Amino acid sequence: MSNPKNPRYQIEMIGIETLIPYARNSRTHSDAQIAQIAGSIREFGFTNPILIDAKSGIIAGHGRVLAARKLDLPEVPCIRLAHLTDAQRRAYVIADNKLALNAEWDEDMLGLELSDLRTENFDLNLTGFNGDVIEQFLNPPEPEEVSVDSKGQTMAEKKEGYDESIVRHIVLIYSVTQYDSVMDALGDYAEKNGLNNNTEVINHLLETHGYAISERTTEEH
Q: How far from 163 is each of 95, 157, 160, 168, 221, CA to CA, in Å?
């Protein structure tokens, strides 16, 4: 007798018209993404079966079903997860999507692999990345430096030992894939602390951690 939490899964070919989308599925699929999935199925085959419940309700694979419709496929491979409780089924609809998003990329290794595939004349758009992002991985820019000043305010190191003859600035260094995360973090901090811009955020962080902020009038030459 098999363990109900580890059943022996079987792939069933089921008519696409009999599959029932989950009405409360919170994951959305744009037309562009559906086209990408369809292209992947056309190139590699239907390698990732649809996960369904005992009544053929879709648990995971809504995007693949939409892509299959686009390709006019009459049936698709499915795995039936009849052992899940209702709560487990609803939670897995979320988990199947979110757990994959929690992974990260080794950007150096990804760039190497994309570069090798390009030399073999493979269509890199089939990897799911668009052209601009692909180029960023193939030709990564130098780390971007952003000087943060405050129009007359300069940021010093600690009060003790600060050299007044040196105008300090802060440099933020991040990879191209981290830009949005950095900007979101700065924006969230500004909103929570009633600050107006990223400069005020940096000043506030420095003062909070014991650094001195001095005002300097810059002479024009």
A: 53, 9, 9, 9, 22
Q: Compute, in degrees rounded to 10, the torsion defined by CA atoms 10, 13, 15, 18.
A: 0
Taking the C-alpha atoms of residue 126 and residue 42, their distance in angstroms, rounded to an integer, is 10
pLDDT of residue 186: 80
CA separation for the pair 217, 43 (Å, rounded): 63
Topology at the third CATH level for domain 11-101? 3.90.1530
Residues 152-188: pLDDT tens digits? 444 444 444 444 444 445 555 555 556 667 777 787 8
SS3 5: coil
Domain residue ranges in the chain: 11-101, 107-138, 146-215
Helix axis angle for 31-44 and 62-70, nearest 10°, is 80
